[in-house]
Amino acid sequence: MSTGAVERPSKVLILGSGALKIGEAGEFDYSGSQAIKALREEKIYTVLVNPNIATIQTSEGLADEVYFLPVNAEFVERVIERERPDAILLSFGGQTALNCGLLLADRGVLEKYQVRVLGTPLETIRITEDRELFAGELRKIGMSTPRSRAVSTEEDALRAAEEIGYPVMVRAAFALGGMGSGIATDPEELEGMARKVLSQAPQLLVEEYLEGWREIEYEVVRDRHDNCITVCNMENVDALGIHTGESIVVAPSQTLTDHEYHLLREISIKLIRHLGVIGECNVQFALHATSDEYRIIEVNARLSRSSALASKATGYPLAFVAAKLALGHSMHEVPNSITRVTGSCFEPALDYVVIKIPRWDLKKFKRVSLALGSEMKSVGEVMAIGRRFEEALQKACRMLGIGAHGVLCNSFEFDNLEEELAHPTERRIFAIAEALRRGMDIERVRALTRITPWFLERVAEIVGTASRIAEHDLEGLPDPLFRHAKCLGFSDNQVARLLKRDAPIPRGYGSMLEVREHRKSRGIMPVIKQIDTLAAEYPAHTNYLYMTYHGSEDDITMSEVRPQIVLGGGAYRIGSSVEFDWCAVNAVESLKRRGHSTVLINYNPETVSTDYDTCDRLYFDELSLERVLDICEKENPAGVMISVGGQIPNQLAVPLGRAGVPIIGTSVDCIDRAENRERFSSLLDELKIDQPEWRELTSLADALRFAEQTEYPVLIRPSYVLSGAAMSVAHSDEELAEYLAAATEVSKDFPVVISKFIAGAKEIELDGVAQNGRVICYAISEHVEQAGVHSGDATMVFPSQRIYLETVRRIKKIARGIAGALKITGPFNIQFIARDNRIQVIECNLRASRSFPFVSKILKENFIDYSVRAMLGEEVSSPEKSAFECDYVGVKAPQFSFSRLKGADPLLGVEMASTGEVACLGDDVHSAYLKALISVGYKLPERGVLLTTGTIESKVAFLPSARKLHQLGLPLYATPGTHQFLAEHGIESTLLHPPLEKLSPNVIDHLEAGKIDLVINVPRSERRHLSSGYLTRRKAVDFGVSLFTNIQAAELFVEAISSVRSEADLTIKPWREYV
Amino acid sequence: MAEASSDDQNGPITLSPVDHPPDRSRRARLVLDDGTVFEGYHFGATKAVAGEVVFTTGMVGYPESLTDPSYRGQILSFTYPLIGNYGVPPRPTPGSLPEGFESEHVQASALVIATLSGGSTHWSAARSLEEWLIEEGVPGLCCVDTRALTRRLRSHGTRPGRIEVEGVEELPEIADAATRDLVAEVSCDEPRLYEGVGAGTHPRIVLVDCGAKANIIRSLCQRGADVLRVPHDHDLERERADGFLISNGPGDPKVAEATVAQLKRLLVGARPVLGICLGNQLLALAAGADTYKLDYGHRGQNQPCLEVGTDRCLITSQNHGYAVAGDRLPPGWREWFVNANDRSNEGIRHEDFPFRSVQFHPEATPGPRDAAVIFDRFLEVLR
User: Fold this and answer.
1) What is the pTM of this model?
2) Is there a contact between B4 and A540 if contact means CB atoms under 8 Å apart?
3) Considering only CA atoms, which of A875, A880, A835 is closest in space to residue A860?
4) Which end of chain B has fewer CB atoms within 10 angstroms, the N or the C?
5) What is the interface pTM, i.e. ipTM, of the complex?
């Protein structure tokens, strides 16, 4: 234990976690931002490396210097060389930052440049990351871990499993989110898993499998004076076997006695004292279902997803405190910013229940397994707060945004409930409710799910209440039952659906509003409660709030000043992610700068917007019509901003506006005109703006007729669409029929439209801000990939480099026309396709888009600030800067998480599949593109390139690129068609047989042997059956080989590596020096 | 802008039940002496009781808290909203130290909670909380906004109140219990020896039982000490002992004159003394210091206590309504611990003699075990 004074650093390097990906998401924007704030408060100069341009932490006014560069040892070393920081923080950027830091230490970089690691020492991190060392340390202090062996060969893995006994748990060492882990029930399964893991990680762990044990986590904090606290414990509702990131989690624990709670707490503290953690640490336990036997599963000596959750669940600013402790402060010196009178050395007492449910998006992927297990697959999470478990649970189910009205009243169908309970998918909580509703007893459900009975009893309570509601109509619903239902988290909509009625419930919000009015007339109203870390023991100064029916009075009194309410973006999911958090936070900050009282509503624990110091009052609650109306009734807002949180708040615009809520910005009617396909289309016709031919769908026969007229391919999509939910391209009658069935499932309240799909066109986006129809500022970006790749998966270049001035001129003109006609006030985004001098509008959103942070940061002109000023009615003048003056380029590249999604085909299409994005700056498009690609995991090829270049057209198109690859001296491999084509054009390549042909030499062998480090695999069509192409792509993903499936992206990559020969040629410049 | 309306609720009001669970039909209510009424539903024993209304912020450990003799005579409210989740352990075997409880019976007069939750599906449970309360004759009130109650107690101080149950006619007076000699009520009647574990010589500790929690005895025995538990007014000076432990207990320390008198005589000697909770206050009074009533006490499992003169801060379990006036200690005494939240006294020690005491509960149960080191240090002194 070090007790000496810690030298205060003057310049600190902070590593971010890069793009959002499965297993590493928005939580690190929260932790990094808090760390920067903690350092800035002490006037320490901060340097941040993070290519995630949509984050808050990379915004102006936080870090003193920002590098949009890959977080890897090579780039970070060069940043260190340039900046010469005297210290580094590794624990705020997830596993990415930690791994990078370990590598920098191994390479002697930290020593060479005299960079001190703040907080938990590297040696401790190394122990917690190396499972063998870790198990050894635990043995030293007599703590139980699962029996396990670390091995580095397949043979040793098999031997270890024999010793331990099947089934065994298999995990990769040094991996985030349980990557490569799973349960092997026999040697054959183990062998396959071991081979895959060992291709990507040096070490594999074979462990005792603790089926049916409870899973508990503690978030522990320690300072250098050896003071320790546990900020929070959390209990997984799902039994051990499902990754904690995939589990429904409740805080605090619900089924632990004092003995169990404090036994595990005591062990956590003993453990981190032994390890010497300074700052924050997460300890995961398995606890036997019917005894106090325990095993320590894992320790993460860094901020984590769980710590972000714990921080939001308790109101204890974990990341901020951890940063302070890393600087050498003691815990009791750091004030508790909620009470302002108490310190940070205490353990929060909760007087509410918090539930987290992961958000999955598995349906976006083809061929992916839907089963949940020890690997993470979820892309986001929601957190709900209530005074009863049932209330929080039902809120959380709704927050998922998957069409659930609660745990009940949903349209999920289950063919085989027992199967669903025993082999969980993302719908298990709904399956449990359905099973109980159909009369399955709790004991049977417990046997199938291994879930602790207390949790099942809570679901049964909801089910029982639902059946009692169903005995009444609205007038006859007894007040006590109505109140009880609200205490159990039933929404008005859910009650409307349950009530006895003569006709089927009509679509729209009518019946929900009817229930709402009736409820209010009965005096059944929610109250506002505060989260204050001390269960009301001390007065709180912050307004971190939630609403509940289990209360008789509000904790706060409203004043006369009417606030501005900003609606946040909800759970991160594919298509709606940290970029909307950036927008919401910037909107709040802009409002605050103008002296407005600000209120924010959001429920995503991975965000900065839900830090209680972001706005004046934070409602950590649902973004539903019901709850937003509740809050508006309490707050009496001057305005409600629905255009900066993505599609979730945007969808509320019309019903909120109709309910009389003062929506600020573009009028509700104009929003509807842009969102409603038909109205928008006739507007374009009026304005004489070209658009792809389309039709609103009434029947399959009509659809087929339309497709026949316009010729395939056609695009099918529902209105109010984001991230291409159920959006598809059909090439044949058969496909059309199939996709339509899927599309109508998504949202029954909105019609489906079908349009001509234009292939081979360039896609261009305009992000803009207007006021009363006058465009104030705009940014035009081009996609590298041709139309057909979802804009969220496309590589974006800004300022555009390859668009004719004439095209730009026409795009501007169209934008002005639309802005004027819709009298846009605030942010908007228009997507265009351009082919053969023809420009068509394919989409228009009257809200901030995904690319707002990107263009704002590249230009250093905050589009959200302009939007807010425009919406407030200030006189706003256009920025003086223009994209034409940029002597640098920004490239935004998607981050895919296919490696996490076993079996998923990494092919791109009109459905969005990327989980995150990065953007890098460069003096030219090539260097910016390469930095961006490296940031999302691509490597520059050195060993060999495998080419399968698709149709004859794309083969021809790619020929010059193939030649360049050849000239670079890279060994080329090709599958038969491509091989022959290349030979005909005088380019040498080695023939490899496709996977399905079991001939040698084969693609698979070469990939497995590591002879290929770049695969360019352009499919002939979007075929979905098991093909050689699929097997090749999948193998590339599984073995971490760089993969391109899009011809334009591959061409640009080849161009780029031809002009920039090595990583060392890429310039290292901070943001400030570009802009 | 909205303000936290924490400290400005004036005047008595009546708050209706927040929930109407279908399995609860009998109404009940908590009436505070200022006329404020919290309506809810009844559970547990069907009777009306009066007592000082206090709250605890601990999130686990209701069987331990309810059997803690320091809660004697009090109406206990839990700020954590779900109580009963893991049931209640089996009935203690008469004569032995109760397992999972701090004494053989429920000591609190009544229980006030938001939601009575769950039955007895936990592996260690033998019955539900409600079944236990019925056996013990203790009433409960649920469906109350306990946060609203806590906010009132926080701003106006803990106060006397009464639980009234529908159909129960006989109502006890709402009266200040401060004058009641609660220590005499909860102390044991005659000395009893508990043997320490392990071989070798066992130090002999005399435990002055002012309402001692069972885990104090267990903690000492586990460390190899023999514990002689004696009544609160036992003649200590003549007792053969290597050290004395003055236990926790209920009520105003100034009422426990008999024990203070015994302690005064002990302080003339030099045998080690350790006080816990009420023991801290009694030791302080015996030493000539003063005690006072806190506005709303410390009851919970998250109280940070700084060891004076160090950077060490312990997270402690607490349950007390009175405190030692730490700024006015007699010569020769200093503060040992202070509360990091409100700087109130959390322990005192003598400069020359082995007389020490802590306001918190090193025996935990319920609560964190960090402060168990206090027992280790005490045993070291004895050896």
Assistant:
1) 0.95
2) yes
3) A880
4) C
5) 0.96
